[in-house]
């Protein structure tokens, strides 16, 4: 019988290869574009937007990946449900607060990864604590000016739900990592084929029952573009990329790399939504990059 090679936690932690890093960066860029698509279809409800993006992504997975591994149905359903919950929270947040600030809150997923690890007895190192402190400082710097203006209640709701999205993506990265260590992690295509179509259909039915057709159907060119962008660029592509990153990178490093999402989102917001970054945004982004550097030094040691 041929010997089966089992990759341990330490082996995987050292296997920080280009594919894992590229997967995390592609995920950041793809999810950063979500704010642009959402702002192109402000009349559609969050349920409808997520439903359409899921159905389109599922169709792409069935078309492009006709053959995938079997036997990971339960895991694919669980991970798919977590992604769907994340998409719902993110769309709601982008509809209620500026793109850059929402992306930054979602980028705080490493804080939740450390929290999850602490709950099972793995306490953060001092470098991780410094990285967290810099991240929180960047969060405060970027968000503070907006909290002093008008529409504070609406913005707070968006930012709080964005933090829920951060907790969900951190949980996804952590769970996918544990499944990968046990060689039980489904691919992104398996997750999309298994969970996205039924969950998307269910969300669309709920949206149809609880809202007028104008809130459910993309009837104009911009909402159609938004749905296509959400389905292909910000759902199908990152579903594959985040699975690669989660399998090949430690959860904390994976989510920390995705702290670049706010920087991409700020650039996209500036280029496509005329949301010009302020000096506060630049300063907060510098603090976030400092946190990335501190954690990157730790990861290479």
Q: What keyword list fits this structure?
A:
301 residues; mainly alpha; 14 helices; 78% helix; disordered N terminus
Topology overview:
Blueprint: H1 9-14, H2 18-32, H3 34-40, H4 46-64, H5 73-96, H6 99-106, H7 109-119, H8 126-147, H9 152-181, H10 188-209, H11 221-248, H12 251-257, H13 261-273, H14 279-300
Helix pairs in contact: 2-11, 2-13, 3-5, 3-11, 3-13, 4-5, 4-10, 4-11, 5-9, 5-10, 6-9, 6-13, 7-9, 7-12, 8-14, 9-11, 9-12, 10-11
Describe the model:
The structure is a single chain. The protein has 301 residues and is an all-alpha fold. It has one domain (15-300). Helices cover 78% and strands 0% of the residues. The protein has helices at residues 9-14, 18-32, 34-40, 46-64, 73-96, 99-106, 109-119, 126-147, 152-181, 188-209, 221-248, 251-257, 261-273, 279-300. Helix 5 packs antiparallel against helix 9, helix 6 runs parallel beside helix 9 (152-181) and helix 8 (126-147) packs antiparallel against helix 14 (279-300). The longest helix has 30 residues, at 152-181. The chain is globular. Mean pLDDT is 81; it is low at 1-15.
